[in-house]
């Protein structure tokens, strides 16, 4: 009888473990359920619906009719669609490399062991805390062609300032200048990457007689490439989603001569001003394909220039 009781107790142990594991799984799913429900309701289902809407004439007010590839076909014959792509690519091609260059340069300067460096780091990070709408209003006054501070300072030294936001030639460079003013968040990430580089590498380079430029080229930049890679991907995605600054600066008009009509602005206009939600959904999926393709290219090419410590 004692042996039977012992065997019953042994067989009961796996069952108890199974019940405990089940309770743990249920508890875990209960804690994760708010996030899972949010992901399903606000991301997954809307994405799937947008695929269907991109093949319809859905307009929010009416269910619309299935039109197949008509929305995509109309987009490729829409001059403003191509103009918005050009503006967005122009901004991305110039802003992303410049943000990486100035971000790394600022981070290297802010990484110097100088008294009071924490104050300078705070100063360069503060612009990122300013809302983009307020930032746009501030720069509208600074770059005003007639009584703006920038042109006023240029006039004092005998230089006639450009029209900035008022001219087609200078509107996008002006926007790039404004956007570069807020790279403090990327600088913080670069600073973290610089702090992760072991001092032993610099000491070894010093013993070999390397100067500052050689240390930067052979030690700092190669070991900082994982952070540069991250900021490159995030910067590219953010640049293709540029919306708040140009929309605020032009009050949604994209002036002058649509030189400030960016892709997401035109998508928003079609969806929420003209209620062409099917058309806007098609634009959204084209943007998704472009961003995914560029991200894939960056990931593939990263094997050649991204270096990780210990590899």
From TrEMBL:
Which Pfam families has this protein been placed in?
Answer: BPD_transp_1
Q: Which UniProt keywords apply?
A: Cell membrane, Membrane, Transmembrane, Transmembrane helix, Transport
Which cellular compartments is it found in? Cell membrane
Q: Which residues form the ABC transmembrane type-1 domain?
A: 85-298
Q: What membrane topology does this protein have?
A: Multi-pass membrane protein
Membrane-spanning ranges: 26-53, 89-110, 122-142, 175-198, 219-240, 282-301
What family classification does the UniProt entry report for this protein?
A: Belongs to the binding-protein-dependent transport system permease family.
Q: PANTHER family, per this entry? A: ABC TRANSPORTER PERMEASE PROTEIN, ABC TRANSPORTER PERMEASE PROTEIN YESP-RELATED
Q: What is this protein called?
A: Carbohydrate ABC transporter membrane protein 1 (CUT1 family)
Question: Which species is this UniProt entry from?
Answer: Paenibacillus pabuli
The lineage, from the top, is: Bacteria, Bacillati, Bacillota, Bacilli, Bacillales
